Amino acid sequence: MQANTTRGFLWSDVETRTLLNIWGDQDIQAALDGNFRNSFVYRDISRRLGAMGFERTPEQCRVRIKSLKRQFLLTKEGNLRNNGQYHKIFKFYDTMERILSNRPAIDPQEFIDGGAGGEEAGDGMEEDGEDAPDVYNESKGECPYPAETEVKLEYPTVPIPIPVKVTVGNNSPSIRPHNSCQSANNLSAKTIKRTRKRRTNFPMEKLMEQFLDQSAQAEENFYRVEEQRLQAEDRRREAEHTRELHMLQMLGQMFSSISSVRSAGTPSKMASPPVYYGASPSCTRGQSGQVRCPSPQKDCFAHQSQLLNPDPHPLVLDRYYSLGSASHRGMEGDILSLIKNIVPPLTSKKHKGQDGRIGIIGGCQDYTGAPYFAAISALKVGADLSHVFCTKDAAPVIKSYSPELIVHPVLDSPNALEEIEKWLPRLHGLVVGPGLGREAALLKTAKEVIEKTKVREIPIVIDADGLWLVSQQPSVIQGYQKGILTPNFMEFTRLYESLHHEPMDNTDHKRNVMQLSGAMGNITLVLKGEQDLISDGSKVMVCSVEGSGRRCGGQGDLLSGSLGVLAHWAHSASTAGTLRSMNPSVVAAFGACALTRQCNSQAFQHHGRSTTTSDMIQEIGPAFKKLFES
Ligand SMILES: NC(=O)C1=CN([C@@H]2O[C@H](COP(=O)(O)OP(=O)(O)OC[C@H]3O[C@@H](n4cnc5c(N)ncnc54)[C@H](OP(=O)(O)O)[C@@H]3O)[C@@H](O)[C@H]2O)[C@@H](O)CC1
Ligand SMILES: Nc1ncnc2c1ncn2[C@@H]1O[C@H](COP(=O)(O)OP(=O)(O)OP(=O)(O)O)[C@@H](O)[C@H]1O
């Protein structure tokens, strides 16, 4: 098989002969004879040519054959008038004659009008340009141009008719449409000029020269126009591409700047869409816990201002958010990219502690693992320092797990509050509950610490036994907008029943989460489970990042510790204006849930059934990177 040297529009002699051999086959001729539409025949020709090593489209084959037929016709006419001398100037004359002699007489109009079928409208006069040299190089029996000569321009899909003057008979000019696709190159033009001088004694030849000359000129014109059209098309595409990029960038920026809907009663909070199940309470508390009742006038004003100055992406996100459906995977992507924006950059300009100092209130004689998991998770997520405030006997045990943690054995000391309070100004986030136990004295201290922390407006995550405290005394955190509760199903039920004074209806968890958050003054609530449901009372967000079937104890501690850091980052971002129109607590909660589940999934891939929370903690770095830094 021959190498494919046939790209471009020039046909070498050998390629032309191969084409003629195929075209001359009886079955091809028979198929062409009987059909008005013959595109399928040319497809077959193209395929056969390809099998011989020449890659040509059916259209190229068709145009080439048409061109050869036109050459043949002109030559034949010349022969009739000049005693058969003309057949010498068309090297494929004999082959064509042999083939066509078996076919019905050719209608010359066929070549002039561009063929009978509509699909033949793309007649390629460009082939004339290359056939012309054939006329004068017959003795060599080869294509006068290197067959490899690449001509970049392709056949236009829609032929553009160019009027060409054709001299018919006694030099009387007439105009007929010419569908040209390819300009003859310089070489062909030169050859034509040279030969024109040598062969002026044949009137027919003169006619052909003129014809070819004008064809070449028309082609040149055509290609000039076509070139301009292509350039314009390129410019249009480029502009379109730039516009798309710009829009994507804007979209990215808008998503990245979606901010708190509800934090501290901003206008956007009041302008947020209708409440899922209509369970929002009429009164909420501000960041410092003050009760705030939205007035109808304020709502109206906020709604109007949103209409006047609509920010479409928060609305889009709100829609996802209020739908609360696990099928909205796109929403997860959107929130995850939001979280990327709250992650502080790692720069050499910062000092130790700036990316977060997190405190854990928990750790007693029974439970030393839980505060450790929470504290180490906070560090692994990116906090600079992690403090554990635990009982005296738990401290050495917790210290022994890790030298990374700062452990304060103060929780059961007589002046526990004082001891802890002095650290509060340095803390950016507080996690209350992991391994706290339910001893009254410890719970009392925890409660007092929460109160002091609220005054400082530090984000507070309450988990595990801290939630036991909340179920006993909801007011400890009610309405504090930087408070986040992370109950498992048992803890949630306890809280719900404590707040609503009736058994929980288990048929609709989303509704329950909304209601409980509302009852808690719209603080952010995470109901952990097969899907994590996150709500701030107005809507429910679902985190269904794939985890695993492994439910080892301590996963909730990983979540609460991570959330302590993320809450600090999210609220800082919100204060800095990076996170507009979206509740930072909700964003942080989603991030922590996604991270915990991702850790679970990754650890499970390595350890399967033997996965423990320590294995998951090892995955925090890679999981964080995958979710928030890739
Ligand atoms: N290594 C350590 O140091 C660890 C210490 N930890 C610390 O332990 C302390 C107590 O926390 P806790 O979770 O055991 O107490 P609590 O919520 O009362 O649950 C009690 C019972 O509720 C049930 N139950 C639980 N989840 C459920 C669900 N999703 N759906 C349905 N039911 C569910 C279940 O009942 P069961 O099935 O056994 O009848 C369970 O036994 C706390 O300080 C915590 O931080 C842990 O962090 C683990 C690692
Ligand atoms: N059925 C489940 N499928 C997938 N992930 C789950 C499932 N249940 C819980 N999780 C995930 O495990 C994490 C911890 O939830 P879990 O319910 O175990 O908390 P917990 O009981 O408070 O944990 P801990 O053992 O620390 O007290 C959450 O991120 C949650 O998404």
TrEMBL record:
One of its GO terms (biological process) is metabolite repair. Keywords: ATP-binding, Lyase, NAD, NADP, Nucleotide-binding, Phosphoprotein. Its cofactor is Mg(2+). Signal peptide: none annotated. (6S)-NADPHX binds at residues 435, 488-494, 557. GO terms for molecular function: ATP binding; ATP-dependent NAD(P)H-hydrate dehydratase activity. It is an enzyme of class 4 (lyase). ATP binds at residues 528-532, 547-556. Residues 120-133 have a biased composition (Acidic residues). Its EC number is 4.2.1.93. Catalyzes the dehydration of the S-form of NAD(P)HX at the expense of ATP, which is converted to ADP. Together with NAD(P)HX epimerase, which catalyzes the epimerization of the S- and R-forms, the enzyme allows the repair of both epimers of NAD(P)HX, a damaged form of NAD(P)H that is a result of enzymatic or heat-dependent hydration. NCBIfam families: yjeF_cterm (TIGR00196). This is ATP-dependent (S)-NAD(P)H-hydrate dehydratase.
